[in-house]
């Protein structure tokens, strides 16, 4: 408000100054005993004879208004005043930098859930799971819906084999963050590890719908579909994020793990036919077709598929080699 008042005052002063100057000139002329015709002649600059003075005054009256010295001064004052008002009103918004809870430039806030979650991850990686749990409890005490804390807590319990407790954390995460693909993926994996494959499929497919180009979510969904005997649907997910030969190879791997040997041999053969340089696929297809109960060496690794056991929380799938 104060800046607006100052701007209005400045504008009024600028408007009055040209008028005051003109009045001052007129007053000076009157005080010196000058006649109206002489004053008109002075304004027109054409001499002091009555005829010329009257004619110049008429011309002055009928000339465009923009030629008047007074109008030009007023117009200039308006432009200057408008410029000053614009500069006063052009306020720059204040921009505060985002606060980094881990920055050493500021005193850390012990109640910050993000800070407590980061400390929990550090503690668990350092082999102090109980200390990690204490940090996570503090984080959730401040914000019971804090997604990183809920997922970190679920991962910790999951790795300790406490699947029922981990499942509770994942369910809470999905309840409060239903559009988080990571929360949906972790919930689906935990359900699958408990043998609840059909229940696991729904959150896994929702994660894929939210991030269809994420290979991890496609791979996990394909793994559950293969376990349920729905190989065609599993292949559709795999080939959405892998070249077709790799998709067939990975599906053959999943089918071999569940003991579906003829189907596994078929997909290994498909991979080798699509890519003759795919040596691993050709060798596995040959072994499965030539032996009744083949055994795949432990050293062999699927291409871009997660392990069937152990959590695969949001990490990059294991990439195999040909």
Q: Tell me the CATH superfamily of the domain at 111-212.
A: Tetratricopeptide repeat domain
CATH class of the domain at 111-212: Mainly Alpha
Query: Could you tell me how far the N terminus lies from the C terminus, measured between alpha carbons in angstroms?
Result: 73 Å
User: What's the shape?
Assistant: extended
Radius of gyration: 42 Å
According to CATH, the fold-level topology of the domain at 111-212 is: Serine Threonine Protein Phosphatase 5, Tetratricopeptide repeat
Hey, roughly how much beta strand do the residues contain? Answer: under 5%
Question: Which architecture name of the domain at 111-212 does CATH use?
Answer: Alpha Horseshoe
Q: What is the typical, i.e. mean, pLDDT?
A: 77
How many alpha or pi helices?
Answer: 15
Poorly predicted spans: 14-32, 39-53, 307-322
Q: Approximately how much helix is present in the residues?
A: 55-70%
What structural class is derived from the secondary structure elements? mainly alpha
Give the topology string: H per helix, E per strand: HHHHHHHHHHHHHHH
